[in-house]
Description:
Layout: H1 3-9, H2 12-19, H3 22-29, H4 34-61, H5 65-92, H6 103-118, H7 121-143, H8 153-159, H9 162-178, H10 183-204
Amino acid sequence: MTLSQExxxxxxxxxxxxxxxxxxxxxxxxTLDLDKFKFYIGxxxxxLEAFARAYSIAAAKAPDWDGFNELYQLAGAGxxxxxxxxxxAAEWGVNLQQVQPSAATRRYTDFLLATAxxxxxxxxxxAMSPCMRLYAFLGQEIAKQGVKDHQxxxxxxxxxxxxxxxxAQTLESLVNRYATATLQTRDTYRYALDCEVAFFSAAMK
Length: 205
């Protein structure tokens, strides 16, 4: 079993908490209040900017060219996802330039950027991979029930796609190559998943 598989398998409690979270079940059914989703889109756009920066910092520290290239490509994918949020924001009248990060968002982005600046590429990949794996998991689990034709359909299609799964696997391959199975690694992974739960909960308030 690879390190990334071990980390994910050891945190199925949080994965299931997210899958059963009212925010996620509301997206799956299409019944989530639109104002809550608008709030989420603004916060996630802010988050994705920090995510892309963390990729870039990790790429600069990568110990070899392959790692640099893969992280650079992942940063580009993050920017593409950010552009999707811009389209959704424009469609629903959300001004991303006026978004103020919530405490949960700031906690998550500060953690990612602090890790990227202070740690080596392997631990930064560990801090970032829970987000990618979790969203792929959520999208795929929702899609198993059939992608319903509602206003959140594009969200489900994005995160259940083969393309997004490949991004998640690429990041996990970086975890496996550059990270080691230490207590710090496990704590970092779990903290990132805890931030995901708080991120969803903030949208429901």
